[in-house]
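Researcher: Following up on the earlier apo prediction. This time include the ligand. It's pyridoxal-5'-phosphate, with the SMILES given after the sequence.
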Amino acid sequence: MQIADRISKLGTEQAFHVLARAKDMERKGINMVHMEIGDTDFDTPKVVKDACIKAIKENKTHYLPSQGLLEFRTEIAKFISKTRKIPVTPAEVVVTPGAKPIIFYSILATVNPGDEVIIPNPGFPTYESVVNFIGAKPVPLPLIAEKNFNFDLDLLEKLITKRTKFIIVNSPQNPTGGVLPHESLVRIAQLAKEHDLWVLSDEVYDKFIFEGKFESVSTLPGMKERTIILNAFTKTYSMSGWRLGYGVMNADLAKVVSNLINNSISCSPNFTQWAGIAGLKAPESVVTKFRTELKKRRDAFVTEIKKLPKVKCHCPRGGIYLFLDIRETGKTSKEVFEILFEEAHVATLSGAAFGKYGEGFIRLSFGSAPVPRIKEAVKRMQSVWYKIAN
Ligand SMILES: Cc1ncc(COP(=O)(O)O)c(C=O)c1O
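Model: Understood. Below is the ligand-bound prediction.
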């Protein structure tokens, strides 16, 4: 079988492989606690499902413009204008099946081979994978546990070279649960303007902040034109399997990204976009309910996990993950992952799956684990922890 050379540069999102492996275990009759995949176990809100069913019954089942349904882009533009306090028009919105395509398309559209892209590390693995794939150079920006997973502001400046084209920002952050403080966003904005850089602001966890308020780098003066906002219905409305997301970017770039859609998937599904409109128009309580439950889980998890010796738990301020510091155990992330998976039947992710600065950590998602399941997971972890920390 002949495979093109470029494929060797493509990475992968480990969560999907561990999910498949956990499903194999379940087929053998083993009960697994799922903490590997970044999903939530809530039902998609009824108003959203009803709107989708109505759209199908009304035969909204055909092609749409590649950029997305105008009515949907109009609602997204209103939502982003209101929440980010920047004027956004429907021409600046591009609809995609989930958030991931915006990562792929926006990097493909703006970064040349040999350019450099600054990427939070540990960070969502697709960033680095796509940058490598197109022959550009990923430059890791370490996120530091002791700084609440913020980065060193002066280091960011030092990492910028003549080849730097693009910075990726993700807050609240996957996998760490960190939320970047205002001064970090200000520094990113200042450097992006000074060096004429694009900024991809991955805001898929914008509604899941437990302390403080969400802030987008796009809101800062002079940043709207150079920021690509990435968001999705995946986490906010618990719609991972629907595949519904969008990017907000300047109108010229939106045309380029729309042509990439035209050449690859033609358009996003029609009826899901009508469902998206219903989601954006739904009362805020629909999302608040999810956030309240997630906070309850987070608090319970942080309390429970302290029962394990030789771990440090940095309380996540947002998102759906606990990024557990296991450095004191002396074991690698992969070793701990394997013991937990095979012997405790708790599916987690090795921190190293998020980049080299993730080594020494494991990621546990509480998105799909209600409090009793969290307690069960920690109990199982305790039963094998003597093999990890002795
Ligand atoms: C930070 C971040 N960005 C993007 C995505 C991809 O989202 P989607 O499933 O909508 O493509 C995820 C999913 O886990 C994520 O955590």
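Model: The mean pLDDT is 97.
Researcher: Noted. I'll compare it with the apo version next.
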